[in-house]
Amino acid sequence: MAYVALSDAEKTFILHGVEEDFRCDGRSRRDYRPMELETGLVSNASGSARLRLANTDILVGVKTEIEVPDPLTPEFGKLEFFVDCSANATPEFEGRGGSDLAQELVLSLQNAYESPLAFDYRTLCLIPGQQCWKLYIDILILECGGNLHDAVSLAAKAALFNTKLPRVTATLLDAGITDLIISDNPYDCTRIGIDTVPLLVTVCKIGDFCLVDPSAEEEVCSTVSMVVSVSMRNGEAFLSGTHLTGGGAMHRDTMRNCLQLGLSIGEHLDTLLAKMLRQEQERVGPKRPKTVGFLK
Amino acid sequence: MLRVTQVKNSLLDGASIAEELYSTPQDGDNFFESLEKPAKEPENLAPRNTFIRAGVVTTVRGSAYMEYGNTKVLAIVSPPKELIRASARRMNMGVLNCYVNFAAFATGELESVPERERLLSSMLTKAMEPVVCRTEFLNFQLDVRVLILDDDGCLLSTAINCCGVALVESGISTYDLITASTACIYRDHVFLNPSAKMEELLWKHRTGTGTSTGSDSKDNTSTKSVQEHGLIITASLDTFEQIAQCQQCGYLSPETYMKLMDYTLAINKSLRQLVKGVLTARVREQHELDLREKAESALEDQRLAEVIERLKLRGLDEFIQSNIKEDPYVKKQ
User: Which of A71, B172, B203, B213 stands the most exposed, by the fewest C-beta atoms within 10 Å?
Assistant: First the structure.
């Protein structure tokens, strides 16, 4: 994560705040910072979203391509993640500085989306064994203000919700070759179901307490954090990929607490995100607010 | 679907190649059917047959070789070296880098090797960070290299175990001994220490799980509970019951997650005894070697002392005379 220099006194102040359940910015341990979410900003992508979580700014674009499915999973489409840590975010990302962080984010996203129960790869299938959609999810980190895992997964989910795949009809030619016809009408499209798409929740351990949505300063104070990937299915929360990060260790009981905190927060976050996305979609015509964009 | 007809191989004197070239989704099912299924609740929480030996490579100080069933791994710890480009964030901690490499013959498919190497390296670094006292070598970096000689599942956990032993052998201070193990669940069966074939089944044949029969299962999903599948790798430091890393993939309910984690923690405990035994044996062996060396040098000292004593008795002149040799190039007058 982006490095913030903190003195011992500042660290102690943050630690005491966490113990009192009253953090530096006035939040409790279970609160998120305010979020701004917009979809459909990038005209060249099939779907896009921009998320601002206090100082963390993420822009996600989804591009589509037609590919041949893997012979072992003939009815599955493909997903590919790419994270770009822009040098605008911190000078540390200049050159190859951000590649470690980018790789970590890509790996945790890949891990979370791996299971066919978490993301229904069948919806991306065109002709089993012959043609499928491949989605390129390109994530651009414009500003780094802590809690990147959560912000990136929220933005990716919103961008997937916004993704419009053109309707495809297939005609069978001679010798079993199929020809795909992509609809000319830009409004004739299909959407991707995002009900079970996982969200990552970082549960950060500072002192003896666990908290969510750490700011960049709080991340410096934490010894270990747990990234919990929560996928909602039939109203129940499932785990689709968790790991520890931050170079520390924790007790089994602490881990269970972290897990429970992460699951309850993830559940809440998921319902809220779904609600907000639906609201934004319904606002059409003059009621739709002007897109603000990411440069403001 | 994809079936390759067997071609007679002229090189093999008309014999056909036994192994099939391509696997199909159906093969996964067949393999699972043929598999000996463990009980739903495994009672025997034991590691596989394990062989560990510390100090196998003489060119570096810390090295270890480990066999975990058929999985064979070699780990090397090179001494800390100074950071070339020190940045502010690294000032208060030493840097640990782990690199995992597959030997060319370690695995059947070569396409996915670079990606797996990257994934394993990153996970291994995360797992080893908590155990090394990184505050002791500020501004230095420690490189740990792992070579995988044979892959039969549980790669990451075996690599963690092996690195733990190699770190102790190299004399890098650690907070505790680290041990790791793997458990997975597939179609309601819990597999401890899954083999490579089992892990492949989990990842490659993903169609086999959950909604396997297409349309009719779609109606059932609301009533039928979700079929969980997933894999857990836990690395623990048992003195204070700390968990250094717990990586999970797949799709699990929180209860199953905790259950699988407890299984792996139990295996870690018994592995820890083994690692402890290996390390104490190694120290004892080294101690014996040292003793023998000491005894030998003492003997040598004694011999020299005797020589000196004898010379003293015979007098210095005689000693000098006995040591003057005739110069062969100077002719006697």
Answer: B213
Question: Inter-chain contact B254–A76, Cβ cutoff 8 Å?
Answer: no
A289 inside domain: no
| CA B170 to mean position of chain CA atoms | 15
Give the closest residue to A106 by CA, choosing from B232, B154, B115: B115
CA distance A72 to chain B (A): 5
Six token digits for residue A286: 């003059």
Is A76 in Cβ contact with B207 (below 8 Å)?
yes
Measure the CA–CA gap between B217 and B36, rounded to whole angstroms.
Answer: 27
- Residue A1 resides in a domain: no
ipTM: 0.87
Delimit the domains of chain B by residue range: 25-206+226-279
Is residue A260 one of the residues assigned to a domain?
A: yes
Contact B244 A241 (CB under 8 A): no
By C-alpha distance, the chain A residue nearest B176 is: A249
Q: Using a CB-CB distance cutoff of 8 angstroms, which residues of chain B are in contact with residue A263? A: 254
- Residue A243 sits in a domain whose CATH number is 3.30.230.70
Measured CA to CA, the distance from residue A123 to residue B267 in angstroms comes to 40
Closest-approach residue (CA) in chain B for A235:
B222
By residue range, what is the domain housing residue A169?
Answer: 8-282
Q: How many domains does chain A have?
A: 1
Contact A115/B230, CB-based, under 8 Å? yes
CB contact under 8 A, B207 and A73: yes
3-state secondary structure of B222: coil
CATH number for the domain running over B25-206+226-279: 3.30.230.70
Q: What is the pLDDT along chain B (333 residues), one digit of tens a residue?
A: 444 444 444 554 544 444 555 555 566 667 667 777 666 667 777 888 889 988 888 888 889 999 998 899 999 998 888 887 656 555 678 888 899 999 888 877 777 888 889 889 999 999 999 999 888 888 888 999 999 998 888 899 999 999 999 999 998 889 999 999 999 888 778 888 888 888 877 776 554 444 433 333 333 333 345 678 888 999 999 888 899 999 998 888 888 899 899 999 999 999 999 999 999 999 999 899 999 999 999 999 999 999 888 888 877 777 677 677 777 676 655
Distance from CA of B221 to the nearest CA of A (A): 9
Beta-carbon count within 10 A of B97 CB? 13
Nearest to A254 by CA among B242, B198, B153: B242
Contact list, A260 vs chain B (CB under 8 Å): 254
The model's pTM:
0.83
Domain for residue A288, yes or no? no
Shortest distance, CA A241 to any CA of chain B (angstroms): 4
